[in-house]
Amino acid sequence: MKSETLAALQEARTKRQAVTLATRLGDGAEGLVYRDSVKGDLAGDAAIVSAARGAMEVGRSETVEIGGQKVFLNVYVPPPRLIIVGAVHIAQSLAPMATMLEFDVTVVDPRGAWATANRFPGVKVIKDWADEAFQEMGLDVSTAVVTLTHDPKLDDPALESALKSDVFYIGALGSRRTHAKRKERLAEVGITDEMFARIHGPVGLNIGAKSPAEIAVSILGQIIEVRARRLEALAAPKAAAA
Question: What is the pTM of this model?
């Protein structure tokens, strides 16, 4: 691997950028294929670029044959990330559970009395409004967003930002009545019915959860299910073609 290729991969990891390193095994030619750009020797090979992006979406490295030559597609995707809006009791259970499953967890809440390291040991805590934090962090297809505050001033801007991004999961705590009122408020800022339908609300699987820990289990279970179904859907066309 070329030194500049290694440096670019390290930069992609830091920035949470998905990238596929395509290597033509016959001559060692390399190309770095991102979602919206390509660098390296193989930048002009449309078939390799297409295959590299397909592998990136599925998140699976593999060796393929293109134009009579074998190409190794080494996929680097950011780990799944969970952003929890609201440093509440449910979040105190959800954050460590998600961390155990290798999610990159961040808790966002501007309320300093709630958003503390003591309440969330080992978890990144951002004391800021969610929409502002999202701009700094960036939202991507490997990210899940859950709002838990029950406060429209905190939850609504977070949901609006998430709905305008390509995060794979959006969940919002609250009853059906609360969710209906939430829909009315978000409609006033331009969120369409189709966009709003992406929100899982009331959040979590229907397992009869009552306690904060049980609700956290239901939320995390739903996130895992949605992520798995998405990956299956992405892999299906490729499997059918094979």
Answer: 0.82
